[in-house]
Amino acid sequence: MYSFYGTWPWYISGLLIGAVMLSLILFGKNFGMSSNLRTMCSAMGAGKTAEFFNFDWKSQRWNLTVVLGAMLGGFIATHYLSDGSGVNLNPQTVVELRQMNIDEPQGKLLPDALTSAEALQSPKILAILLLGGILVGFGTRYAGGCTSGHAISGLSNLQLPSLIAVIGFFIGGLIMSWLLLPLILN
Amino acid sequence: MKFLKYLLVGLVFGIVLTKSEAVSWYRIYEMFHFQSFHMFGIIMTAVVVGVVGIQIIKRNNVKDTTGQPIVIADKERGFTNYMVGGILFGLGWGLIGTCPGPIFILIGAGFYGIGVVLLGALVGTYLYGVLRNKLPH
């Protein structure tokens, strides 16, 4: 039923993501992707204007290396490990998306409506991408972590603050996905 | 050479998130509408593996690869920053379907439009750094 070149099943994927987190712990580090955004701000000189970025960003080069690997992984997986059969959504989801003028996946990871070269000519789409990025960047630092740092690492270490953050992730996500997204896209 | 292992871990992470489609805007929409178990299954399996692994590490006082005892710091206590920051993050996640890991993975995969999301995420991170002392935590 499952093919290596199609969608990987959730239990294999979850197992491997857990293994990624545990590997970094065994290397004496921790699993957290959003920290890299802070590191990049610091490397670009943000420490001159905000104390928060005054730290030895070079000590985080190992995490930037994880990012580089992840980018390579994304490249390899889409170009060499995919047969175009993926992203089979619930048919109900497809119907809802069509009502918001979002194209069917047909194997694509992202909708053309948001990321095609044509879409990127639209000021509205660019504003959506930029605003979404700002919310993700600001929110993740305010909450002290993202999906990797809180939902995976924090919950695995039975941390109450991480549970609070994850509940926040879902409150925000549900408000956006159910109430705001249809207004924004229509 | 000491960075090779981090490159490999990142490589596995990028491949798994792409092949599981956790980087897909569609999958995040589907998750928030409870129309598929897929994303919930991924997160729950990862957490179960993580809980078991961390318990084994703690109970056996496992040392890391440099020979140091493994200490996993507890998150600072608090509520406002976790809840409000979490909600803001969730609004962004629900809108553009990418958390920080997938932003990088998708750019690597050739979705250059996500570069705009990365730019926004850096701006957002910077804004937090500037406003930090004025925000309730």
Automatic annotation (TrEMBL), chain A:
Q: Entry's InterPro entries? A: Sulf_transp_TsuA/YedE
Cellular component, GO annotation: plasma membrane
Query: Protein name, please?
Result: Putative transporter component
Top-level taxon: Bacteria
Q: Name one Pfam family in it.
A: Sulf_transp
Which lineage do the record's taxonomy fields give for this organism?
Answer: Bacteria, Pseudomonadati, Bacteroidota, Flavobacteriia, Flavobacteriales
Topology term for the membrane: Multi-pass membrane protein
**Assigned keywords, A-Z:** Cell inner membrane, Cell membrane, Membrane, Transmembrane, Transmembrane helix, Transport
From TrEMBL, chain B:
**Record carries keyword Transmembrane:** yes
> What InterPro entries does this protein's entry cite?
DUF6691
Membrane among keywords: yes
What keywords is this UniProt entry annotated with?
Answer: Membrane, Transmembrane, Transmembrane helix
User: Which superkingdom?
Assistant: Bacteria
The membrane spanning regions, by residue number, are: 38-57, 78-96, 102-128
Instruction: Spell out the Pfam families in the cross-references.
Output: DUF6691
Q: What name goes with this protein?
A: Transporter component
